[in-house]
## 1
Amino acid sequence: MKNVKFNTEKIATFALNNKALILLLVISIILSIASPFFLTGANLINVVRQACVLAIMGIGFTLLLSSGSMDLSVGNLMAMIGVVMALMDKAGYHPTLIVGVGLLVGIGGLCFNTFLVQTFDLPGFILTLATGYIFTGIMWLISGGQSPAGINDWFKFIGQGTVLGIPLQIYLMVIIAIIFTFLIKKTEFGRHSLAMGGNLKAARICGININKNKYIIAAIMGACTTVAAMVTTGRAASAQLSAGTDTAMDTIAAVVIGGTPMSGGIANVPGTVIGCLLIQVISNGLNLLDVNSNWHKVAKGVVIIVAIILDVKGTDIINKLRVKNQDKKAN
Amino acid sequence: MKDKVLLSVKGVSKSFIGVKAVDNVNLEVMEGEVHGVVGENGAGKSTLMNLIFGMLKRDSGSIFFDGQEVNFKGPADALKAGISMIHQESSLVQQFTASENIWLGMEERFMKNGIINNRARDEATQALFDEFKLDTLKYNMLISESSIASCQMVEVIRAVAGNAKLIIMDEPTSSLSEKEVAVLFRIIRQLVEKNVAVIYISHKLDEVLTICDRVSVYRDSKYITTANVGDINRHQLVSFVVGRELNNLYPKEQSEIGETVLEVKKLTRYGKFRDVSFSLHKGEILGFAGLQGAGRSEVAECIFGIEKADEGEILIDGKSVRIKSPSNAIQHGLGMVTEDRLRSGIIAQLSVLCNMTLAKLEKYCSKGLKIINRKKEISAVDENIKTLQIKVNNRNQTIDSLSGGNQQKVIIGRWTLSTPRILILDEPTRGIDVGSKSEIHKLMGHFVKMGMSIILISSEMEEVLGMADRIIIMRDGQVVHTCAREDATQEILGSYALG
C-alpha cells in the first residue's frame, strides 16, 4: 500500500510539472479520433510551423518572465519591425543592412522600455501597455495603413524556405531553444537572471548587477522579437499590420502553461515550446472540426485559465499529498 | 476607584511550530488603569496582545474580560466587546478623512434609509476633538497629508468613538516628539478619567514609569512580575527586563586580534543614524547592541552599499573607499547576512546549491562566456555543507524546504564561499532553534580564528555579551557607548540601550 501511495505523489508531481505535455497529448488523442486529417504528416508539420513564431517569442519571454520582468509590447514591436524591414526591402537595401536595422529596432525598443522602467521605477505591466500603443502607432504611420507587400526572395525564404524538407523556421526554433536552455541552465548570466526573478533584493545583495542584466535580457528578447518578425513577414510575403494584436497574450499564455510561473525564479524552455504547440493544436483542431473561429478564442481562454489554476494550486496539491503520505507513514 | 478587574489573563500559552511564544503568562488590568507592559524584543509581548485582541488563538489558559470568559474569533469580536488596539503601523485608510476613518465600520449611527449623513458624522467627530482639546486636528483632514502624531490621535479617538473600555497601545511614542508625547499623555489621563483602561507597551522605561499605574514584565516568553510603579525604581525595572543568567551557549574561542581592517568615520544617513564612528580589527568580533530601530541595521546597510550614506567616510586597510553597491562591497572583501532571511536572504525557488554559490558564482565559471563548471560548483557546495553541518537530503532540493536554522546556515555558507575578509551578520540567530544557534556561534568563532573579522548585530544581549570582543551600543541612531566585553554586563547594556 505504501508504495502505491508514494507513486501517486510522484505521478502528481510529474503531471503538474508537465501539465502542458499532458494537455497536449490528451487533446491530440481526442483530435486524432475526431478528425481523420489531424494525424497526417502535412498537418503536423503545418502545426509545428505555425507554432514557431510563437515559440521564438515565447522562448525569449521565458527568460524575461523568469527574471522578474514583464513586457506587453512585444507583439506590437514585432509588427512594427516587420513593417520597417519590408519597407526597407522594397526600397532595395542590402539584406545585411535590413537585418541589422531590424535587430537594432527590436533591441532598441525593449531597451527603451527597460530604461523607463528602471529609471523611473515604474511597473512594467502598465508601462509596456503604453509603449505598445506607441509602437503600433509608429507602425501605422510609416506603413501609411497598407501592408508593404512584394518582398524579395531571401526574405521569403526565411518564412517559407525548407532545408532537407523541413521548414527553416523549425530549425530556427530548435536552435533558439537549445541556446536558451544552455544559457539559463549553464551560465552565470542565466543563474543570475533566475535569482533576480526569485528575489530581487537578495540578488542585489549577492552582488548581482541588476540594471545591467535587465538591459541584457531586454536586448535578447528584442533580438528574438526581430527573428519572429522576419519569420512572420517572410511567411506571408508581406508585413502583417495586425500580426501583433494577440501576440503578447498568446506568448504569456504559452510560457505560463509551459511551466514558467508569472512570479519568476523558475524557467522551463522546453515547456514553453510545448505550450506553444498546445495553443496551436487547439486552434488547428477547431479549424479541422470546422468550428466557428470565434470559438477559438473562447477555447484558448479556457485552456489558459485551467493552466493558471494548475500553476497556482499545483504546489499546494503536491504539498498536501506529501503531508498526507508522511502522516500515513507515521501512522 | 481602580479596584474592579477589567481584563484578566490567566496561564495563557501559545506555540508556533513547537516554539513557545508565550508560556503560561498572566496579566491583570483594572478599569481606568494605565498598565505598562515591558520586555525585550521577543519576550512575547506582541503575541500576548494579539491573543487578547483576537488576532491569534490561545493553546491553553483563559482570558476574562469585563467579568466573562472570552474566546474572540477575530479582532471584530474584540472590538465589539470593547477592546481596541493601536498598532505601531497606522491602520488608517490613507485616502480618507479623519472623520471617515474614525467612524469606519460604525457608519450605521449616522445612517438614514441607507444613506450616511456626512454632516452629522463630521459634527460628532469635531465634538470629540473638542472634548479632548485636540485643536490641531480637523474632521476633514486627509490622513495621507497628516503627521504621524495626528494619525495616532485619530486612532485613539476612533477607539473612543467605538466605546472602547480597553485600549492597547503598542509603542505609541516610537515616532513622536517630546511635545507630542506630552499631548498623548494628556489624552491618556483624560481616558482614565472616563474609566477607560490602557495597556501601554513600550521600551522607554521612563515613559512607563511616568504614565503607568502598574507595570508587568515579560522575559523569554514568560511572565516575570507585576509591580506598582510607585514601589520600584528604574534600576529594578531594568534588572527585571534583562536579568537572566548567562549560560554556556556561547563558546567564543580566543582569537588573535590584529591590525585595523575597517574604519568608519562619522557616517551619517539623515533620519536614520548620525556620526557613527568605529573601527574593526582582524580576527575581531565587534558586537552592535541596542533595540530594534536604533539604527544598527541601517549602518550595516550603508557599509555594504545597500543604502547610501549622506556623510562620512569608510576606510578599508587605511584606504578611503566608496561603496556604491553590494557588488562593490563584495569586491572590497565584504559579505553580509541580512536581518530578514525571507525578504533579502534566500531565493526560495532555487536549490540549496544555487543559493549557496550565488555571491561569487564566477569562481566556478569559465572566462568569457561564464559557463558554470558544474563539477567545481558541486564539490565546493558539498564541502561547505559538510563543514557547516547543514542538514539537507540533497543539494538540489529547494532552499525553502529546509528548516529556518538550516536555511540560515546556507546563507552563511553563501558568504563563506565568497571568502570575505569582513562579514556582517545582522541578527544571524533570530527565530532559530537552540541547536542551530549554538552551531552558528561555533562557526563564528571558527571564522575569526582563520583571520576573518565579524560585525555582529544582535538584539539579544546575551549573544552580544557571549560572542563579541568589543561592544558598541546604539540608541536613536547614535553610538551611546563602546566597551570591551570584560567591562560589559547586562545592566550596562540594558541601561544604555533603553536610555
## 2
Amino acid sequence: MSDLIQPLSESTEPPTALQIKLQRRSRWNAVLRYTLLTVVGFVMIYPLLWLVGASFKSNAEMFSSAWFWPKDATVQGYIDGWKTSTPYTFATFFFNSMQIVIPKVIGTAISCTLVAYGFARFEFPGKKILFAILIATLLLPDVVTRIPQYLLFRELGWLDTYLPLIAPAWLAGDAFFVFMMIQFLRAIPREMEEAARVDGANTAQTLIFIVVPILMPALVSVCLFQFMWTMNDFLGPLIYISTVEKYPVSLALKLSIDATEAFNWNSILAMTVLALTPSLVVFFIAQKSFIEGISTGGVKG
Amino acid sequence: MAELQLRSVEKSYGNGFKAVHGIDLHVKEGEFMVLVGPSGCAKSTTLRMIAGLETITGGEVLIGDRVVNDLVPGKRGIAMVFQNYALYPHMQVRRNLSFGLRLKRQPKEQIESATQDVSGVLEIEELLDRLPKQLSGGQAQRVALGRALIKQPEVFLFDEPLSNLDAKLRASMRVRITDLHKRLRDEARPATVVYVTHDQVEAMTMGDRICVMKDGHIMQVADPTTLYDRPANAFVAGFIGMPEMNLVPAALAGGKGGQSLTLDGQSISVGKDLEARLESSGGRVTMGIRPQHLEIVAADADDALTGKIVNLEFMGHEVNLHADVGGETFVCVVPSDQFDKNLQRGDRVGLRPRTSKMHVFDIHTGANISLA
C-alpha cells in the first residue's frame, strides 16, 4: 500500500483518479484500524483504570456505578488502608516485602549468572545430564515440590522466617531464569571472552568485566521478573510465614479482607494500588533494557 | 620479541577426529609468517593452539625458549586479532585498548601514554571516546590491531583479520599492516607475526614466508617467490596463483628427440631445461603449466596442444581463454593487446607451453618431480 502512495507526494503531476481512490481507501483503512485498536485497548485497560478510580471512591459509592471516575473523590481509603486493622501500618508490610524481594533478586542475579555461564561456556563431566535435569525442573509443576520442600525447611527450623523464600534463589532455584540466561549467552560470540583471556583475564575476571556487562539486558529482565513475581507471590509467604508482624504486602492485603466484617473495599483497593506501584516503577525504570533483554533472548535463542 | 616453534604439534578431538597431524614450523624472530589453505585445513586451529585457546594434544609449542603448552593465553606473551574484531562492546575504544594493561595493574600514566602511542600509530586518536558500535568495520579492525599492539607481545597472532572488510578497505589495511611490520622492524623492535588467511593474495603480498596447509598437514613452507616458481607438490601449485595452474594427467616417455609428454594423442617435447630437472623418465604423470605460461599459436603447430575454445573471458587488461584438449580444460591468460580478436568460441587453437616454466608431478603422491 505505501508503495503505491509514496510516489504521489513526490510527483508534480496531478494525481490520477485511481491514485485518489487508493489514497482515500488507505485513509479509511487507517481510521478504521486505529478506532478498533483504541476501543480494544480501552477495554483491556479499563479494569486497571477502575481500580485506580475506585480507590478514591467512598465505600458506599463503590458498587453504585461501573464508571471509574469517583463522584466525590476521597483519600479516606488510603488513610484507613494504611493504618490496617492490625497494630502495624502498611509501612511494616512494605518493609517486610522488601526484606524478601531485595535479597531474592540479588541472589537470583548472582546464582543464575554463574550457573548459566557454567552451562553455556564450559565442558564438564555430566553436563548433558545436569542440563536435562535443569530443564526437567522447568516442566515440574510447583505444587509437586511444595510438601517435601515444607518438610525440608521445617527440619532446618526455618519456618516463620524469610529463609525458605530467599535461599532457593541464591542456589539458582529458578530454572527458568537460568535457561533464559543460557539462551542469551549462546547468542554472544565467544571471541570477546577469548580476547579477554588473551588480554590476561582469568575466568572470574572474564565473567565480571566482559560477560556480565554484555549480559546486562538479560540480567535486568531476570531481576525485573523476579521482583514482580516475588512482590506478587502469595502462596510462598502464606505457607511459611505465620506471624502477622512478618507478613509481606501480598498477605497483608488478604488480611484486610479477613479482619473486617463489612469489607472496606475502598481501603483494600487503595492498598492494592500501592502494592502495584513498586513493580510499575521498577518496570518503567528498567523498561529499555528489559525489552531489549526479552526480545534478543527470544529471537536469537 | 621472540621466535616461535611448533614441534610435531597435534590436535585430536574426543571423538577420535584428528585435525592437526604433527606439524613442525619454525617462525623466526621478527618474521611475518602466513598460514594459508582452504577452509577446514586446520590453520585456525593451529593458530588457536599457539594462542592457548585450544588444548594441544601432542607435541610442543615454544615461544622464545619457553614451552607454553600448559600456560594460559594471558601468560604466553601473545596478542591476537580476531576476524570479527571481538571488541568489548560496552567499553569505549580507550578502555578496549587498555583492558589488558589495566588487568596487569600498570600505573595510570603508563597506560595513558601507551594508549596515546598506539592510537597515534594507527590514527585512531579521534575515536578514543567512542563505543565499538559507533565504529565502521575498518576503524574497528584498527582498534583491534591497537589492542594487540599496546601489549607489546612476543608474538602477534592474526585470525583472518581482514575477511569482514570490503575489497577496497582490505587492500588498504593490508598495506597498513605490512607497513607497520616493516616500521617495527626498522625501529629495532621486530614483531613476530603468525597470520592466518584463506586469501592467497593476502598471503603472497604480506608474508615473508608462507606455510600452505591442507587437512592438518603442512604442504610447503617457503617465501612467496619459491612457492610460486617451485611448488613442492600439485596442491601448492594449484592453490597459489590466479587463475589456477593447469594440472592435467599426461604420459611421460623417452624418444629420440628427448623426452616428451603425451595427452590426447598429442605429443610435446619437454625441452632441455625441464628434461634436466626431471627425476623420472617415463610413466603416467600430472603436468602443470600456469595459464600465464601458455602461448596461443595456430592449430596443429609443432610442440603445441591443439584444442577447441570453450569459453572466453574478457577481463579488460587480459583475456582468459578456456580450451578443451581431449576432455581436459586448459586456461590460458593472454594480454588484451596480444589477443587475436578474430578468435571465437568453437575455434580450434594451438597452445604452446613454455616448457622451462612447466612442472611435472607424481600422479599418485602429487610430489613435484621436476624440481632438481
